[in-house]
Write a structure and sequence with these properties.
With about 300 residues, this protein is of the alpha/beta class. The chain has eight helices and eight strands; from the N terminus they run αββαβββαβαβααβαα. Keywords: Membrane, Transmembrane, Transmembrane helix.
């Protein structure tokens, strides 16, 4: 009887131990499950909160950027001197009534030149399309404005040959913004129609200018955007000499001339000064002018100007 009672007691103790282990394991499992659930819930709400903060911050930055852009447009500019090209030029306009002999002479000049600046523009009032081309030569340049027309005659054929010589892969073509190679109004000319223009070497001076300007004219020491190793554009920038405040914003040609040379270039896209303005900017970029060189150039231009 004693042995029987002892055995029964041992079995009960074992059952009790297993029960406690099972209970402990269940409690532990439930605790882990509850902890995981709470952690997931907390992470979910934290992510929503961070996302909300980022969204609000982005909207605030963009709103501030837009406000600054609008504000900058209303800041009165300093007195600017008249725009002056780097070198003298001769302007020629080619219309439907122009003699093919003139184009023949220009073809001869084009064969001697390997650098050109090109700017397409329209007269909105008449709907006429023009292509402005500057021959970049040693001491002076030639600026040709070609009226685009589609009448098949001797002049059209000469212009077709003329454009094929200029838009040759061996030449360097400077533009402001990317040149639209698929211009519908130019498709009658072989260099556009055959796709040869895709082989041309175009240089987008607008992109080059932004990089050069930000490097040359850094942020002021008290600028809100001052960074140790970066001269990027940002809505926080408070520098008056850096009107472009958003990284995605591009410089207009008018502002690029005004802020770099303190010269007034406001004749619009139909002016024969557009190509010389692009050329002038690329020249200083190519020669990597410093801030000191630019400031000296401004002073000299101011002294030599009629209002200086």
């Amino acid at each position: 009887m004693i042995l029987s009672c002892t055995g029964t007691s041992a079995l009960k103790n074992n059952d009790s131990t297993w029960a406690r282990w099972i209970t402990t394991a269940c409690d532990l499992f439930l605790s882990i499950l509850l902890g995981f659930g709470l952690s997931s819930l907390i992470n979910y709400y934290q992510q929503r909160k961070v996302k909300s903060i980022l969204q609000v911050s982005t909207e605030q930055i963009m709103s501030k950027c837009e406000r600054k852009l609008k504000f900058n447009k209303h800041i009165p500019q300093k007195t600017l001197s008249e725009f002056v090209p780097l070198q003298p030029y001769r302007a020629i306009v080619i219309r439907q009534q122009t003699s093919p002999v003139i184009v023949n002479e220009l073809i001869i000049e084009a064969r001697k030149t390997n650098k050109f600046t090109i700017h397409p523009y329209d007269y909105k009032s008449s709907g006429d399309h023009y292509l402005e081309i500057e021959f970049l030569q040693q001491s002076s340049s030639i600026i040709i404005s070609i009226e685009i027309f589609h009448q098949q005659n001797l002049l059209f054929e000469r212009i077709d040959d003329f454009l094929s010589i200029i838009l040759h892969p061996s030449n360097m073509i400077y533009t402001w913004k990317d040149f639209d190679k698929n211009l519908i109004d130019y498709q009658s000319y072989q260099v556009f129609l055959n796709g040869d223009i895709n082989q041309c070497h175009f240089v987008n001076v607008q992109n080059c200018f932004k990089t050069w300007y930000n490097t040359t004219f850094g942020h002021n020491q008290n600028c809100n955007q001052l960074l140790d190793f970066n001269d990027i554009d940002d809505p926080l920038c408070s520098c008056s000499h850096r009107p472009v405040k958003c990284p995605t914003e591009q410089w207009s040609l008018t502002n690029a001339i005004a802020y770099t040379f303190h010269q007034n270039f406001s004749n619009g896209s139909t002016s024969s000064k557009t190509c010389p303005a692009i050329t002038k900017l690329f020249n200083i970029i190519q020669n990597n002018w410093t801030r000191q060189q630019i400031e000296y150039f401004r002073k000299q231009c101011h002294i030599n100007s009629p209002n200086g």
